[in-house]
Write a structure and sequence with these properties.
The protein has 12 helices and 8 strands. By secondary structure, the protein is an alpha/beta fold. The two termini are 19 Å apart.
Length: 294
């Protein structure tokens, strides 16, 4: 399984999330504050006169734009995403901001393969691993988590890179507690953060960067994952590169499954082969590889 993913370099109210998905475009635009009741009357009049759809009539009157229509449609079809003007997350999360891009279609292909090979039965956890730094693990993990949540799967993204964590920055999370604090007994799993933009997505950030990441992962991760598997359908785990230590191998062995991440023109094939063999020696199934290009 391979996919090439290339990195790409007035806001609707949150009240829209509380409106039933069967609501009309007009009702959604009203709740979002994009149009007023008097605007709706003007739109309906033009709609009848010209035989237009409600959204097209509203656009013709200059009351809304294409982004407003897409946002309302995403709610009707239960397919949440963020507009470019909504700076809730890092622009790196293309699955959040550009759900119709070819790169995101590639991610959906990866998701489909994983559903067939991994998440169709009792297996719920998957580690994303790579030999070296800057090969795209955090990027792929975050965007995969979003597309799994868009499918309706209760998805948890765990940042287990206790050396150079990134997920808190990608999702712009506040607060310092996370996985390391849970494993050290300084916090509990209430620090799992539910995404406000994607109701099926939760994130457990890395938390405080500890002096002993390998020891923390070794003694506490298995029990932590057993608790979380009762709450989620899919658990994706971001890891440090294997050149930084043995953390990723320990994490992957606790998951029982791993997805290799390589970067085009950077990752050496021999390094990838050695990593795959080390996973197999640890009784961890390698489900495939994703090739990033950015």
């Amino acid at each position: 399984m391979q996919a090439i993913v290339t990195k790409i370099n007035d806001k609707m109210s949150n009240e829209i999330a509380n409106v039933d998905t069967t609501a009309s475009i007009g009702a959604l635009l009203l709740v979002a504050g994009k149009i007023s009741a008097s605007d709706a009357e003007r739109i309906i009049a033009l709609q009848k006169q010209e035989g237009l759809r409600f959204g097209d009539a509203a656009k013709a009157l200059g009351l809304i734009n294409d982004d407003d229509i897409q946002k309302a449609l995403s709610h009707q079809f239960d397919f949440p995403f963020q507009m470019a003007s909504e700076e809730s997350f890092s622009p790196e999360l293309i699955a959040a901001y550009q759900p119709f891009a070819t790169q995101v279609e590639a991610l959906r292909t990866v998701r489909g393969q994983l559903m067939l090979r991994r998440f169709f039965d009792v297996h719920k956890t998957l580690a994303l691993i790579s030999p070296n730094r800057n090969e795209g693990r955090s990027y792929i993990a975050a965007n995969l988590a979003i597309v799994f949540s868009q499918l309706g799967e209760r998805t948890l993204l765990i940042d287990a890179d206790l050396r150079q964590p990134r997920q808190h920055a990608l999702f712009k999370l506040q607060g310092g507690h996370g996985l390391s604090d849970v494993l050290a007994g300084r916090a509990d799993l209430t620090f799992v953060t539910q995404s406000t933009a994607f109701r099926n997505l939760s994130i457990l950030p890395a938390g405080t960067v500890p002096p002993n990441p390998v020891e923390l992962i070794s003694r506490g991760l298995k029990n932590c994952l057993q608790q979380l598997q009762l709450q989620f359908d899919v658990i994706l785990i971001d890891t440090p590169s294997t050149e930084q230590g043995i953390d990723a191998q320990i994490i992957a062995s606790n998951c029982g499954g791993a997805l290799l991440v390589a970067r085009r023109h950077k990752t050496r094939l021999n390094d990838l082969q050695l990593l795959k063999e080390s996973m197999q020696d640890a009784a961890c199934q390698c489900l495939g590889a994703v090739l990033t290009d950015f």
